[in-house]
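Exam revision sheet. Question 4 asks you to relate a sequence to its structure. Input first:
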Amino acid sequence: MVQYLPSSTREYLKNDIASLVRDFGDVTNLDSVKVQLALIREQKCPRFHVDKIPYRLLVTYTGPGTQYISKGLSNPMIIPLKSLENTLVWSLLGKFRTWVAQRISNEEYNKLAILPGAAIKECGPGEILILKGADWEGCNGAVHRSPPVDEGDLRLVLTLDTGGGGYENR
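Answer key, structure tokens:
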């Protein structure tokens, strides 16, 4: 994919990614970071969720950017608070979430996942978004999702991760 870009664009991406990796490593105090540059043609993660990692950095170079909601505006029945982890309530909520998630559309799920009045915010092209994930000690994690992508549109997205991997609807 990158080989088809003009050399000036390739050079820009190379320098930008190297700089972001270095700076992200400094911010997180880690020596290694997982790097992924992806060309995305569809909505990769349509449901609001929290990543099961300590930190994630996202930059969308082209196309719509990652969507997120402000802290404290997610529904604890759908995306439970970390303080409930390993409790009976956590277990019951997990079963409830699974039951609900299997029976409703992504759109219906997202309406349940965020509280009334919560604004969905979206990063613009080139904006840097650093998210704390569920594996960050003492943090509920940032609730976010991939934006809808119109047919024929593309997103070029850089993802930098620290440890772990995947996501969970919590």
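Marking note for examiners. Residues 166-170 have pLDDT under 50 and may be disordered.
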